[in-house]
Every structure is written in C-alpha cells, then in structure tokens.
Amino acid sequence: MRESYVEELEDIRSCLVEMANTVGSQMSTATTALLDADVALADLVIAGDEQIDATRESIDQRCFTLLARQQPVATDLRSIVTATRIASDLERMGDLAEHIAKVARMRFPDHAVPQEVRPAFLEAGHVAEMLVAKAGTVIATRNVEAARELETDDDAMDRLHRGLFRQLLSDDWPYGVETAIDITLLGRYYERFGDHAVGVARRVVYLVTGERHVPEVSQP
Amino acid sequence: MRESYVEELEDIRSCLVEMANTVGSQMSTATTALLDADVALADLVIAGDEQIDATRESIDQRCFTLLARQQPVATDLRSIVTATRIASDLERMGDLAEHIAKVARMRFPDHAVPQEVRPAFLEAGHVAEMLVAKAGTVIATRNVEAARELETDDDAMDRLHRGLFRQLLSDDWPYGVETAIDITLLGRYYERFGDHAVGVARRVVYLVTGERHVPEVSQP
C-alpha cells in the first residue's frame, strides 16, 4: 500500500509538470493569436482549455482519493494539499491564456494590439512562457532557490505592465478608448498569469521549508 | 470522536458564513470609499483584508487537520474539501474589495469614478453585497434553489458591466484614457467578485446534489 501511495504521489506530480507544459504552450499560442490576429490559433486555445480543466479535475480527484484512503500526516498531507492548490493555479493560468485568445477572436479580422504596443506584448508573452516553464521545473525538482528566483523573474512582468500603462497614458495615444480597454485587460491577464506562476513557486517553498510568504496571490 | 468531528465541521461552516459577512462588509465599505473618495475608509478596507486572509488560513488548517485525523469518506470528505474551496473564493472576493479600495486611495483626493458612471458603480456595489449575502445564506442553509438563483442574480452584474463598456465607448466619453483604464479595472473587479459568489453557490450545489456545473469560475 505504502509503495503504491508514494508512486501515486509521484505520478500526480508528473501530471502537474505536464499541466504546466500545456499551459505554457497555450499561452504561447494565445500570444501568437493575439499578435498575428490569427483566429484559427485563437480557437485552438479556446478549445484546448477544456483539457486543462479536465486535468485539474482529475488531479483533484486523485488527491482526494489519496486523502480518503490513506491517513497522510505532516509532509505527505502537505504534498497532497499543495498539489491541489498548484492544479488550481495552473487551471487559472489556462483560463487567462483563453481570455487572451478571446480578445484576439473578438477583434478579428482587426488586430487587438496596435503596432506600438506589439513589442510589449511579445515580451510579456516570452516572460509568461519563461515563468510557467520555471514553475514546471520547480514542481518537478522542488528546487527552493529556483522557486525564489521566480519572484524576481516576475518583476519583469510588472515592469512591462507599468510600461504599458505609460504608453496608454502618453499624450499621443492615438487609438482611442476601445483599444485602451483591450490593452488594459490584456495587460492584466498577463500580469495575473505571472502572479499565479509566483503562487506555484511559493507553494513549493512552503512545502519544502514550511515558510509561508503570503497567504495568497493577491497583488492588485 | 465522531461527535466532536461533526461539531468541528459545523463550526467551520459557521466560520465560512461569518467570513462571507465580513467580505460583504468590506465590499460595502470599498464601494463607499470609491464613490466618496474617502481615503480613511479605503485604508480600513486595505487593513481589514489581513483578517480575511487569516480566517482563510485558519479554516484551511482546521480542514486539513480534520482530513488528517479522521478518514472521512463520501459526503464528509466532500464537505471538507468544499469548505477549503469556498474559503478560497471568499478570500479572493476580499482581495477584490481591497483592489477597489486601492483604486480609491490611488486617485485621492480626486474621485476615481466620474459623475456619469457613479450610478453604475453604486448599483454594482449593491449587487455585489446582495450576491455575497446570498452566498452566505447558501453556505449556511445548503439551499440548492437559492444557490441556483445566484446564477441568475449575477446576470445583473454582467449587464451592469456591459453597460459600463457602452458608456466608455460612447462618442462623448470626456474623461480620457486614464479614467477609462480605472473604470475598466474596477468593472472587472466587481464582475469577478460576482463570479466568485456564483462559484461558492456552485460548490454548494455540487456538495448537495453531486451535479457539477462547470469545473471552475472562468468567465473572461
């Protein structure tokens, strides 16, 4: 029993890593859909989100079955609980990629993102992919150093986000309010994606060290 | 043992109801802070969020202690897991009230919300309070009918949100891009608050009936 229990926990962890990979690929596709106004790619992302939701559901069920069948204490209990929380973060990151794809779809055949802010979103896309890839590595390795680095890595996203607002607020913003609304929401989706990647890293730090940074991802 | 276990579950449920009340009061204060540009009220909300985070932490700890000490199956297991998820929704709703307060604080002594859109936010505040109050009742009573009504009740929030965009996009929006950004984000905070209230209701429906509406709150 004990052995299959450890195996099950390991397998859940592999599923989380795979889920992080899928979310990274969704985010990458969503960014391309956005920047190229590619509605077929946007639809791929929107359709693909169901699989992420299903994976989260399956991970949750497996965790709760473990909780019910075994009586895990201390580290094992914490591992299982952490797994459900990480699955929740990753599922939400998938939603955010889907939201980005939906903005691309809504504005098609126009581009939601005007030329001047393309570089900011291209960069935000890269940072987002880097963050989720690193989150995946942190889940796989439980490397606390790498987890802590993610906090700093996410500063790049926050800087991009602030830069975006500066562009929107510059006197020569020529695109009007509708585009400003799209950019504001898109900026928030990328930023929240980064916040949740940091959330994953913090959960791993807590799991390994018992140190809790903050109770929850809650940047405005 | 069994009796104290049932008592503990009941007590966790009471804590969730109280948490919903606190979140409702935070949202009410945040809306007033926003509409009156009242920085003292905004600071109250910002400071008050810590208590909500702490309550969530405490509910989680109690749930996981129950999971570890008992071997709950079926309904009991589902009750405990549902409690942690509801606590997470309520905590996030508290964050959203805090975000609203922070916008009020950031624009002080100016009003973040211009005269023309005040009625929309006043109404959004009322709807938000109604939704969280009803969510509290649903937690307390496990009334499936009331839980299902919450879905329809939240449509009012979605209508307000769409109306807000229409105002922003009307040809005579005189307030420029900065205010449009604030309004866009504020609108999203209220809308997400409603989504999470619906999330709470869906979790209760699932707990009572086993019917799952959607895996997670994920409206864009």
UniProtKB/TrEMBL annotation, chains A, B:
Residues 16-103, 123-204 form the PhoU domain. Coiled coil: none annotated. Keywords: Cytoplasm, Phosphate transport, Transport. InterPro entries: PhoU (IPR028366), PhoU-like_sf (IPR038078), PhoU_dom (IPR026022). GO terms for biological process: intracellular phosphate ion homeostasis; negative regulation of phosphate metabolic process; phosphate ion transport. GO terms for cellular component: cytoplasm. It is found in: Cytoplasm. The keyword Cell division does not apply. Plays a role in the regulation of phosphate uptake. Homodimer. PANTHER family: PHOSPHATE-SPECIFIC TRANSPORT SYSTEM ACCESSORY PROTEIN PHOU (PTHR42930:SF3). Belongs to the PhoU family. NCBIfam families: phoU_full. This is Phosphate-specific transport system accessory protein PhoU.
